[in-house]
Specification:
The complex is a heterodimer. Chain A has strands at 9-12, 18-23, 35-40, 47-50, 64-69, 72-77, 86-93, 99-101, 105-109. Chain A is mainly beta. In chain A, strand 5 and strand 6 form a beta hairpin. In chain B, the strands form two sheets. A six-stranded mixed beta sheet of chain B has the order 2-10-9-4-5-6, with no helix packed on it. Chain B has a four-stranded antiparallel beta sheet with strand order 1-3-8-7, with no helix packed on it. Chain B is built from no helices and ten strands. Chain A binds chain B through residues 1, 3, 34, 36, 38, 40, 45-48, 51-52, 57, 89, 91, 93, 96-104, and chain B through 35, 37, 44-47, 50, 57, 59, 61-62, 95, 97, 100-103, 105-108.
């Protein structure tokens, strides 16, 4: 199972919007609405930000939103804030009943 | 409050074995599938294994199939990962996470495979 493809890095100024892509295949991202996004700060455990493509868990700011088109899912952070600087990973359920993560994206707030 | 606490990590020689545990509290453990996820130093997340609530369904990543065994004891609210024939490339922080969405994660336990 190959990792989902994410850009290595994305950056933006405070207040701007950024979008992180997550590209898979019809056997994972494109075939199921079970895409999640995680935020990870250095030395910390991952934190769920989006589940089932576009749902936000309680407590996650509405600046974070998710979507999907075909084999590509996206995470958008609107009104970028300093505390959003972190690594972000997507993940998807697969046709083999397994889970696959993305390669990870480092978000830098300029 | 939901809590997941991993333990059992440490330094082991190549070819050795280690058993990780994950103690769950604050939710009905027996109702949820669980995952093990690992992260090698400076690298990304890698799904390792999952187990359904009643242990009926178990899945492994190709990288650990035949060497690792996931199990659970619902009476003890505990998840386990038996790791055999360990290799240097298994060196990582191992997390347990509640499935299916990974809404709760433990703090991780470090496994180092080195001679």
């Amino acid at each position: 199972q190959s990792a989902l493809t994410q850009p290595a890095s994305v950056s933006g100024s405070p207040g701007q919007s950024i979008t992180i892509s997550c590209t898979g295949t019809s056997s994972d991202v494109g075939g199921y609405n079970y895409v999640s996004w995680y935020q990870q700060h250095p030395g910390k455990a991952p934190k769920l930000m989006i589940y089932e493509v576009s749902n936000r868990p309680s407590g996650v700011p509405d600046r974070f939103s998710g979507s999907k088109s075909g084999n590509t899912a996206s995470l958008t952070i609107s009104g970028l804030q300093a505390e959003d600087e972190a690594d972000y990973y997507c993940s998807s359920y697969t046709s083999s009943s397994t889970q696959v993560f993305g390669t990870g994206t480092k978000v830098t707030v300029l | 409050e939901v809590q997941l606490v991993e333990s059992g990590g440490g330094l082991v020689k190549p070819g050795g074995s280690l058993r990780l545990s994950c103690a769950a509290s604050g939710f009905t453990f027996s109702s949820y599938s669980m995952n093990w996820v690992r992260q090698a130093p400076g690298k990304g997340l890698e799904w390792v294994s999952s187990i359904s609530s009643s242990s009926s369904y178990i899945y492994y990543a190709d990288s650990v199939k035949g060497r690792f065994t996931i199990s659970r004891d619902n009476a003890k609210n505990s998840l386990y990962l038996q790791m055999n024939s360990l290799r240097a490339e298994d060196t990582a922080v191992y997390y347990c996470a509640r499935a299916p969405d990974g809404d709760y994660w433990g703090q991780g336990t470090l496994v180092t495979v080195s001679s």
